[in-house]
Task: structure prediction
Amino acid sequence: MSSSPSPTATDEISWVLTPLLELPGVLHAVIATGDGLVEGASAGLGRASAERVAAMTATVHASARAFTTAFTDSERPRLAQTVVESDLGYAIVVPAGENTSLAVFTTPDAQLGNVSYQMQVQVAALGRALASPSRRQDDDTARS
Result:
């Protein structure tokens, strides 16, 4: 385990991870860019692990897209989610907007349907929040 501080989500998107990490069986969560950089990660995940997860999230998502293309000949299939099952649990990756993915890791007994649903709820909420214009003070108010 790394002794360096773990990365945390930026203030604008940190709230996306909290409800997911409160679900039974969810151990870790990461928000990653399409090129594999960490946008945010659960506190229990070390920096090195979060960076590996972000890089692998991009790779797994690209591989799943290529795999789907091989079966369907579709040039750019839209993925809903990618799930990797192991004896240690499940890794679930969902698109979270333009060039962003959300990934969680759960225990083997987690309720995957509930986790997947809640991931989609958080992604939709994030999309709405990012689409809303930021509030600015009126110039006259700022000068007072």
In short: Helices lie at 17-21, 47-72, 112-131, 139-143.
